[in-house]
Write a structure and sequence with these properties.
The structure holds 2 protein chains of 2 kinds.
Chain A: H1 4-28, H2 37-69, H3 105-108, E1 164-168, E2 183-188, E3 193-198, E4 201-202, H4 203-207, E5 231-232, E6 244-246, H5 266-275, H6 280-289, H7 300-303, H8 316-321, H9 324-328
Antiparallel strand pairs in A: 1-2, 1-6, 2-3, 3-4, 3-5
Helix pairs in contact in A: 1-2
Chain B: E1 5-11, E2 24-29, E3 35-40, E4 44-50, E5 64-71, E6 76-78, E7 83-85, E8 91-94, E9 102-107, E10 112-125, E11 149-165, E12 175-178, E13 184-188, E14 192-197, E15 200-209, E16 222-227, E17 234-239, E18 244-248, E19 260-262, H1 275-279, E20 283-286, E21 292-296, E22 300-305, E23 314-317, H2 326-331, E24 341-343, E25 349-353, E26 358-363, E27 369-373, E28 389-391, E29 400-402, E30 414-417, E31 423-427, E32 432-437
Parallel strand pairs in B: 28-29
Antiparallel strand pairs in B: 1-32, 2-3, 3-4, 4-5, 6-7, 8-9, 9-10, 10-11, 12-13, 13-14, 14-15, 16-17, 17-18, 18-19, 20-21, 21-22, 22-23, 24-25, 25-26, 26-27, 30-31, 31-32
Classes of the chains: A alpha+beta, B mainly beta.
GO molecular function (chain B): protein phosphatase regulator activity
InterPro entries (chain B): PP2A_PR55, PP2A_PR55_CS, WD40/YVTN_repeat-like_dom_sf, WD40_repeat_dom_sf, WD40_rpt
Keywords (chain B): Repeat, WD repeat
């Protein structure tokens, strides 16, 4: 179990590996001869491994901070006026061990390959409000309250949850009060509506009762929406809304629901990964994009035909429906 | 090692500035060893021929000299996919000789070509109606009848494409292998293997398809494939996950279900970010006997007995000192290098390349190994090659090279061993070295 400085080093290593890997994927798009499937597959494995470590280190740090702020174990309740909504049934609350340093975060973050998503954001939230960040054997799904997902365990594939995306916009930045500091931005690919979720709850649910939650959080690019508001998403918008689609939007399509990478501008993705290699919240966003094992390779349209096999897609429509990941790797 | 290796020849440009087109991408001896073919990134094939042994020069075997050079593949552009197809020659495989001409298969990422290499050393002269330069004679001047006769001429070696096997691969071709029936061959890309008849170009049979219905579920690709040297129904293919599957074409038309699966369980103590990458198999070669096969992954060479699936019978570490450097090798892309491996004629020694222009040989009987270097420093004929040693850590002894001073741009990916003699061809980036054993 890594401690202290070694822990920091390994987190940095994971972060730098992630950004190196993303850069490789990105540059593979322009190399001669088309994108190499084999190499990109191997890079995706490194990405996944680094992500697992990164997440486990993040959770470890969270617990450490929590212990620092509240050494007597008092709950971290940041929004006393906000009653927690009922936890999604399939996710048990993670019990905090007495001594967080002994906790095997690594096993906790052991996410298998396949279509599992990034585990829900776990930030400095009260233990009883904390969501289970992961599971050993089943994909750690997190669904915003209100989305009636069928049991997501086991199966490995994404389920029929409507096209909701999760970008872990978790912010550690402000030190101080870890109150309402966890944000998840959710993009519904069907309606193109962006919703911001705080601490795992829909912002409008939580902050309607708690005005303190509405302050903009340092480190995040865009101001939080007013409570209860939804924003229409356009492909040209800021990258806060990046995320990974989970499941099949609407009906039809390939069984098993290939998660899509989001509608983002390619250029933004490029500058994103280049400019913020060390920013943990940005890394989280990137991680969420690549949350699934080797996802986003196939768009629905192409699943039927082998046509755009090693090349870039033509057509703005096709481009708009694919995210950076898909465009980075071969479209099959 | 019983064999003492000496420098014999080096082919290729001397200057350090390497043109990308000159990078050697494949090396292959023909079945007799008389011919040695190389392919490069520029799509060219160069064939060297061994001189007839000079009876007076008993201390060395014949030299290899250029026999034929031709442009096998050109760069292409796939307009539909907006994709350039590289002309780089990925593999060359010789057909056994049946008549005066030689035949080889060469492939780039998408297209396989059958080339006929034939000699012309005489030409007809004395046409009745034509001048020697080909112009027709004025018919009124033709008063006698004469029949042309063949007269000797300077040897000309011609290469002509006899078959073009195209449009059968969606992904990048990594292997071709000729069946022991000498009528069919297989070609493998990342996800599929096709079976061809050498005479038929407009269709092929798909015999392996590992493409998942949902590409999200892709976890491995095919990295190499080869027919068994004796059993025409058997072939193997290796995967990026470090497994080898043996398939029997008699079992079913589509060999998606393997007959045997060769896999060694991973050592959990060696687990790292890069475990998947270094376990990916870059080459698989049957022994000449057909009893064993050899696989190469990033750090090791493994010998498998076809009768034992659960682990290799022998494992040789090529450059274990790189295990602690995997992160840097990932950053500079070296971890993706695909090293090949080869057997000697009697299957007693195996050889593979490494970095710093080093190559390694492992004697299966004595369990001894040796590291040699392909370098222009030793380029006087019959200079004995000095064994090299890499110092992994700690005090560096004299003549040892430390890991940090290895040149990772100088890599030996392609090596070939003469089928009968102790002659080896070792390709550095753009040079081909030929070494022989010391003959007394």
């Amino acid at each position: 179990m890594l401690r202290g400085r070694r822990r920091m080093e390994s987190t940095l290593d994971a972060q730098s590996l992630i950004s190196i890997s993303l850069r490789k994927i990105h540059s593979s798009r322009t190399q001669r001869g088309g994108i190499k499937l084999h190499k990109n597959l191997l890079v995706s494995y490194v990405l996944r491994n680094a992500r697992q470590l990164y997440l486990s280190e993040r959770y470890a740090e969270l617990y450490r901070r929590q212990q620092q702020h509240y050494p007597d174990g008092a709950p971290l309740l940041a929004m006393p006026a906000c009653p927690p909504p009922p936890a999604p049934p399939e996710l048990p609350v993670l019990p905090l061990p007495a001594d967080t340093q002994d906790r095997e975060v690594r096993s906790c973050a052991a996410v298998r390959g396949g279509a599992e998503l990034l585990e829900g954001p776990v930030c400095a939230a009260p233990p009883e409000l904390q969501r289970a960040p992961c599971r050993d054997s089943s994909p750690g799904f997190y669904r915003a309250a209100g989305s009636a997902g069928p049991g997501g365990g086991g199966g490995g594939g994404s389920s029929a949850a409507p096209g909701l995306l999760y970008a872990a916009g978790c912010d550690f930045g402000t030190g101080g009060v870890p109150h309402c500091s966890s944000r998840t931005t959710v993009l519904d690919l069907d309606t193109h509506v962006v919703t911001t979720v705080e601490n795992g709850y829909l912002h409008q649910d939580c902050c309607s009762q708690c005005p303190c939650c509405c302050q903009p959080v340092a480190g995040l690019a865009s101001p939080p929406p007013a409570p209860g508001t939804k924003r229409k998403y356009y492909p040209g918008q800021e990258e806060e809304e990046e995320g990974v689609e989970e499941g099949e939007p609407g009906g039809g399509g390939v069984a098993g629901g290939p998660p899509f990478a989001p509608c983002t501008k390619r250029a933004r993705f490029e500058e994103y990964s280049a400019e913020h290699p060390q920013d943990s919240s940005n890394i989280s966003n990137l991680i969420s994009i690549f949350g699934s094992g080797f996802t986003g390779l196939v768009s629905r349209q192409q699943a039927d035909s082998e046509q755009p096999l090693n090349g870039q897609l033509c057509g703005k429509q096709a481009l708009a429906s694919l995210g950076a990941w898909t465009r980075a790797i071969v479209a099959f | 090692m019983a064999v003492i290796w000496c420098f014999s020849q080096v082919k290729g440009a001397v200057d350090d500035d390497v043109a990308e087109a000159d990078i050697i991408s494949t090396v292959e001896f023909n079945h007799s060893g008389e011919l040695l073919a190389t392919g490069d990134k520029g799509g060219r094939v160069v064939i060297f021929q061994q001189e007839q042994e000079n009876k007076t020069q008993s201390h060395s075997r014949g030299e290899y000299n250029v026999y034929s050079t031709f442009q096998s593949h050109e760069p292409e552009f796939d307009y539909l996919k907006s994709l350039e197809i590289e002309e780089k020659i990925n593999k060359i495989r010789w057909l056994p000789q049946k008549n005066a001409a030689q035949f080889l298969l060469s492939t780039n990422d998408k297209t396989i070509k059958l080339w006929k290499i034939s000699e012309r050393d005489k030409r007809p002269e004395g046409y009745n109606l034509k001048e020697e330069d080909g112009r027709y004679r004025d018919p009124t001047t033709v008063t006698t009848l004469r029949v042309p006769v063949f007269r000797p001429m300077d040897l000309m070696v011609e290469a002509s494409p006899r078959r073009i096997f195209a449009n059968a691969h969606t992904y990048h071709i990594n292997s071709i292998s000729i069946n022991s029936d000498y009528e069919t061959y297989l070609s493998a890309d990342d996800l599929r293997i096709n079976l061809w008849h050498l005479e038929i170009t407009d269709r092929s049979f798909n015999i392996v398809d590992i493409k998942p219905a949902n590409m999200e579920e892709l976890t491995e690709v095919i990295t190499a494939a080869e027919f068994h040297p004796n059993s025409c129904n058997t072939f193997v293919y290796s995967s990026s996950k470090g497994t080898i599957r043996l398939c029997d074409m008699r079992a079913s038309a589509l060999c998606d279900r393997h007959s045997k699966l060769f896999e060694e369980p991973e050592d959990p103590s060696n687990r790292s970010f890069f475990s998947e990458i270094i376990s990916s198999i870059s080459d698989v070669k049957f022994s000449h006997s057909g009893r064993y096969m050899m696989t190469r992954d990033y750090l090791s060479v493994k010998i498998w007995d076809l009768n034992m699936e659960n682990r290799p019978v022998e494992t040789y570490q090529v450059h274990e000192y790189l295990r602690s450097k995997l992160c840097s090798l990932y950053e500079n892309d070296c971890i993706f290098d695909k090293f090949e491996c080869c057997w000697n004629g009697s299957d007693s020694i195996v050889m593979t390349g490494s970095y710093n222009n080093f190559f390694r040989m492992f004697d299966r009987n004595t369990k001894r190994d040796i590291t040699l270097e392909a370098s222009r420093e030793n380029n006087k004929p019959r200079t004995v090659l000095k064994p090299r040693k890499v110092c992994a850590s700690g005090k560096r002894k004299k003549d040892e090279i430390s890991v940090d001073s290895l040149d990772f741009n100088k890599k030996i990916l392609h090596t070939a061993w003469h089928p009968k003699e102790n002659i080896i061809a070792v390709a550095t980036t753009n040079n081909l070295y030929i070494f022989q054993d010391k003959m007394n």
